[in-house]
Design brief:
Length: about 100
């Protein structure tokens, strides 16, 4: 709450419109397209790291670090679908936004 108020005050002091502070306060979690981009990058990165050093991710199959192992498995097993999603996201970022 305090961060939002402080960001709003800074934006108003710099002469931005009142709606601008809200768009500056959003992160990838609140923007669906950015969230999908982050998830795709995580899946591709984990699959690539597992191809280089399998022991690095295979040691942590459970717990919080198990998320990276699961992302690597998704990247390996669903690689055609992940590739299509990456191409669609690249087209969307380059030409639609």
């Amino acid at each position: 709450m305090y961060l939002d108020t402080e960001l709003k005050m800074v934006c108003l002091q710099r002469g931005y419109r009142n709606e601008t502070w809200f768009s500056m306060a959003r992160s990838a979690i609140f923007n669906f397209q950015s969230l999908l981009t982050v998830i795709l990058l995580l899946i591709c990165t984990c699959a690539y790291i597992r191809s280089l050093a399998p022991k690095l991710l295979d040691n942590n199959q459970t717990g919080l670090l198990g998320i990276f192992w699961k992302c690597a498995r998704i990247g390996e097993r669903k690689s055609p679908y992940v590739a299509v999603c990456c191409i669609a996201m690249a087209f969307s970022v380059l030409f639609v936004q």
